[in-house]
Amino acid sequence: MSKSEIYNDITNAIVAHLESINLDDYEAPFGSLCEFGLPHNPTTESNYSGVNIVNLWVSQFSKGYSSARWATFNQWKKLGGKVRKGEKSTPIIFYKTRLIKDTNEQGEEDEKSIPMLKMHRVFNLDQIEGIELESQSAKELTNLVDRIALADEFCKNTGAKIIENGRKAFYQPSTDSITMPAPELFNDTKTATATENFYSVLFHELTHWSGGKSRLNRDLKGLKQNKSAYAFEELIAELGAAFLCPKFNIGQFARKDHAQYIASWLKVMKDDPKFVFKASAAANNAVAYLEGLQSDMSEAA
């Protein structure tokens, strides 16, 4: 499969999911997906990352799988399982570094590392027979009070300036601060409590904050005047929140402006199949940055 076919196939699956969302119901674009928990590989004991998270979520949702565990044919075989006859795989991507020789401006031979896009095919646990794994129910791990306490600690450990004032949530680059409505102004929704919704929105704003000039340095100036750049940054923030919510087993908040965002994302995705790949990579970097601040704070303490 060519690079362009990989980009198109994965993007088309994500587009189909976004198009299925009821825009009149203020449904979070990835809210029904992040409830599954992060896609996990039981052989490597690690979570998938970047666009693979979104793609595996979409596949799990569309095919009705109950498990968030995914592995290749051979990985399941090593665990003693067997892919059922007729089952279809789901593609995932990864980048493999390839060293190539080059000549620099001084005429000296040099080596360059070039990232090469590769594809693997994985199967969900529900497609496997002859194997039983322990239940992976994320919300059973801790009760709501504990989950919220962990989310609150995570947000505080970032060191971000967070002001609870007003009725809108936003990150202001000029003051490098996040403004949030007070927690009591949030309401319960179908998928989350009011408190969960508060932290879901704060995760969104912290993802914006991670792109500040002194941090990951994404270009956040003049976004309101550049519709495509604004849509891209909003997708990064929404994916960042979607990647963070399952880590604390909390639901994702459905904002009233999601319908507007989804329409703009769909337009760009159809024109540029790499759009969601780039946004997912940026969101993944943002989450990794925020997680890195947790260890920094622990060492400081």
From TrEMBL:
The protein's organism comes out as: Maritalea myrionectae
Residues of the Polyvalent protein metallopeptidase domain: 151-281
Can the keyword Ligase be found in this entry's annotation? no
Q: Name one GO molecular function term.
A: single-stranded DNA binding
Domain named N-terminal: residues: 5-123
- Record-linked InterPro entries: Antirestriction_ArdC (IPR017113), ArdC_N (IPR013610), MPTase-PolyVal (IPR041459)
Per the record, the coiled-coil ranges are none
Q: What is this protein identified as?
A: DNA primase TraC
Query: What keywords is this UniProt entry annotated with?
Result: Plasmid
